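Problem statement: downstream parser choked on a complex file, so we are re-checking the raw output for the magnesium ion run. The parser issue turned out to be on our end (a line-ending mismatch), but while we're here, posting the original submission so the record is complete.
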Amino acid sequence: MASALVVQGLSKSFGALRAVENVSLDVAPNQVHSLIGPNGAGKTTAFNCISGFLRPDVGRIWLNGQEVTRWPPHRLASAGMARTFQITKIFSELSVLENVALAARSRDGRNLQMWRRANHCAAKEQAEEVLRTLALSARTDSSAGQLAHGEKRVLEIGIALALRPAVLLLDEPTAGMSSRESEHIAALIRKLSSRVSVLLVEHDMEIVLGISDVVTVMTQGRIIASGSPAQITRDPEVQAAYLGTAEPEFVS
Ligand SMILES: Nc1ncnc2c1ncn2[C@@H]1O[C@H](COP(=O)(O)OP(=O)(O)O)[C@@H](O)[C@H]1O
Ligand SMILES: [Mg+2]
């Protein structure tokens, strides 16, 4: 089956700093593919280049077989790439359902006036379905501003899902969460892969090991390993990067 997302030879420098160097990824349909690495590894820079928020210096990107290199974010979104925007994109005064329904409607935004009413109902149904998937139904009518931090992060994912993307990009969705909330969101991400391919950017190795099909590890802008969680945990270079293992040649 064709890849959902292919990234080939992506590089991005900030002045003399090579934040991302020759990064290639291949995300298969309905897989959770995690991009992990210590802080400063270049994960967010790669994420922003892939989602069109930063211009890569070099590199090419394909979404569902279509080349989308240098496409702006809104065009990528209509082609099926959704990303979360952290809490800033949530309308606090609106209900949880309204937030998700607005996103569902924006997807069908170019329809004719006469279809508006029908769309409105369809968007509400889609939003309800998204909330069920995310186990947020109990919060349907709560105003988004009243949600707990963890629930807001789940709502962000719901807003992205309402766009019915082929690929969902998540940058550290568990940041600032308790370990219980993190486990909950990790389980949700695993569940989402039945309907969408997920590129998950994380620095916490433990979170990704249990839910990923493929893990790609970056340090200092470069990929040092890519494979199944089992392969990754056995990889000596990954172990060194994560555990700070002393280099064997210095042990006399
Ligand atoms: N806009 C920017 N301008 C200059 N340097 C940046 C910018 N964004 C990130 N960097 C630098 O690029 C490197 C990679 O950062 P980042 O992609 O945020 O890493 P990660 O997400 O893996 O923690 C870091 O050294 C960071 O300081
Ligand atoms: Mg980051």
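For whoever reads this later: The CA atoms of residues 57 and 88 lie 28 Å apart.
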